[in-house]
Amino acid sequence: MSAVATLRTEAVAHLKFARMGPRKLRRVADAIRGKSVREALVLLKFSGVFASEPIEKLLRSAVANAENNHDMSSDGLFVTRITVDGGPGGGFTKRLDPRAQGRAAFKRKRLSHVTIAVGPQPPKHQPKQRSGAAIGLSTRTQRQAQAATSKPAASRRKKTAAAAGAGA
Q1: What are the tens digits of pLDDT across the range 119-148?
Q2: Region labeled Disordered — which residues (predicted)?
């Protein structure tokens, strides 16, 4: 062990065994990663997504940890890290669902673990922005939006005609 004490630059909060699937929580987590705490709280409050409520509570807990345990001001805090992992046992608990004629089927109730870290500076590299992924647009809708805003490529015939006209 070294004699030099390392300074904590981020405050962390954990949510374990959240009764919600990791995919639903990751969609919200991707939307707030790298944003300021104030901006993230506004986004979570008005997103209208059911998965944003536990993440909002966890973010408020991380900010309280930063203020009380690390003497940081809440004004300049950013979401430096947020991870969503599956819970134990493959990420779900099994429940029996009675079916017709005396049969039974398993229902898998998914669980998640969420970790949020807030710090005074934004992360060193900004996460790659996916145009509509944060708000839940399908990839087909994203491609259509991109095609509507981009300029259509010139055809090969026009290119060869322009090259022949320039050379003559």
Answers
A1: 987 666 665 655 455 555 556 666 666 665
A2: 118-168
Tens-place pLDDT, residues 112-121: 999 999 998 7
Closest of 91, 87, 90 to residue 14, by C-alpha: 87
Residues in the chain, total: 168
Tell whether 154 is covered by a domain.
no
- Cβ 80 vs Cβ 119: under 8 Å: yes
* Residue 83 belongs to domain spanning: 11-122
In a domain, 1, yes or no: no
Q: Is residue 35 part of a domain?
A: yes
| Cα–Cα separations (whole angstroms), residue 144 to 56, 121, 139, 154 | 32, 36, 9, 19
148 inside domain: no
Query: Rounded to the nearest 10 degrees, what angle do helices 52-70 and 37-45 cross at?
Result: 150
Tell me the C-alpha distance between 107 and 167, whole Å.
Answer: 71
Q: Is 53 exposed, middle or buried (0-12, 13-18, 19+ CB in 10 A)?
A: middle
CATH code of the domain in which 109 resides: 3.90.470.10
Q: Residue 125 is encoded by which pair of tokens?
A: 């590299």
pLDDT of residue 80 exceeding 60, the answer is yes
- Cα-Cα end-to-end distance for the chain: 77
The beta strands (E) that lie in 2-125 are given as 11-18, 78-86, 92-98, 104-110, 112-119
